[in-house]
Amino acid sequence: MPLPLLRLIPRMAAVACLMMWATTHASELKMATTTSTENSGLLKYLLPKFEQKSGVTVKVIAVGSGKAMKMGEMGDVDVLLVHARKMEDEFVAAGYGVNRRDVMYNDFIVVGPASDPAGLKSSKDVLASFRKLAGSGSKFISRGDNSGTDMMEKDYWKQVGIEPKGQPWYVNAGLGMGEVLTMAAQMPAYTLSDRATYGAYRAKTGLAIAVQGDPKMFNPYGIIAVNPAKHPGTNYADAMKLVEWITSKEGQDAIAGYKVEGEQLFFPDYKGK
Known about the structure:
alpha/beta, D-Maltodextrin-Binding Protein, domain 2, ten-stranded mixed sheet, about 270 residues
């Protein structure tokens, strides 16, 4: 082989490696999301449909909504799927996120031992139930992780004028929803859960629904692309592919089609641009 060609081989190999690296990484999308979308099994059902259609691989980082948005602020992820509307609006207003859209909703429920030691069953008033819980002395486990669920629970206590921190019946776990449900079954104790994660864990924990149906327990989810003007290194193009797909008829139908033991756990909520 002529000498000039031999000299070109290492350069050609380096270029080929760079092209392979760029192709691989351009098709990976980092999504920070709440633990409820992961623990419920929704993402394992939903994302392969998107990946097959788009050719984009989604790397899921499941944390509380608060931590997810902190990752978005730092530019560590490309897109968020979370459920903390006030924080979502603040995130967008501060310029960290763009193109937020409603995606779906479910609701919060209070779950606990089947024996219901606090006498909450059949209640549809979450605030009255929290007062009754505090008065009963029954154990209550808080996620304590700055998630959307954790923030909602703290707001309920604030509305009833009770500071549970430091009380002997109040346990601050600092864990995700699935782990807290497992703890509640073992203790036993009550906790606030999103309905979807509870549905996925119901059989293994034996916990029963104690409080449901209060409009104050509505739980909406939104998707937000991280702003490329703040973080030019983020994969904005693929983030918008996911935003468009999950709010398309195909994506919304897929959300509606996800069921556990015949029960629909999430309800599509995109109403158009």
